[in-house]
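Good morning C.,

I know you're traveling, so I'll keep this short. The sequence:
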Amino acid sequence: MRNFFAIWRRELAACFLSPIAYVTMVFFLIAANSTFIVGAIKNVGNSVFLVSLLFASIIMWLTVLVSIVSMRLFAEEIRSGTIEMLMTAPVTEAEVVLGKYAGAMTFVLFVIAPAVASIYIFAAMGPGQDIVDSGALTGGCVIIFLIAAFCMSLGLVVSLLTRSQIIAAISCLCLIWLMLFLGNIVSAIPFAPPKLVTFLSLLSHVEDFARGSIDTRPVVLYLSATAFMLFTAVRILESRRWK
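The tokens, ready to paste straight into the viewer:
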């Protein structure tokens, strides 16, 4: 565990010491909140949950945030050759993967938190109106965490497969957007079961959870997919040790 925390601190420090990280943070907050505000203005008078609009906006820009943060996890180490030094250190592949993953996830959650808290600004702008449903907000936070965890694990695997950060970022972004609209793609297949479409629709999960309807099936789906991606990353890193 000591090695894990050492790698976690190293990765977290690398995130916060990079000027690109702060540019990314500001860009995400401005983009997510602007999208939320525009959506709220367009839906004035409609029966649309502001919490749902908020988390839909966050998910849209979370794809970019995760791609930028994850692209450097291993791609930069491979390009600079420091991956060899890391592999000869007295650490296991699992500690390296989980440490880097935990550091990147901590940074992403730190960036997302102010965007989620912006819903209270709208609550303050509407005196006498309780527009923040604590159950819906909790559900939205749960699904955002699960999706971010899965997307980051996917980005980590992509970063392991290339030495170019640009290629890693673009590939990760394309894969995440593919997963984002997987339900729509499956629905276009003739005779596709409606339950399968709903089960694979990431956007439907966000909408349901943001309304306070928490279903254990998406939770199991994202946790299992995240665990599989991290397991795959460990095996890929192990294969590099023997090259």
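Safe travels,
E.
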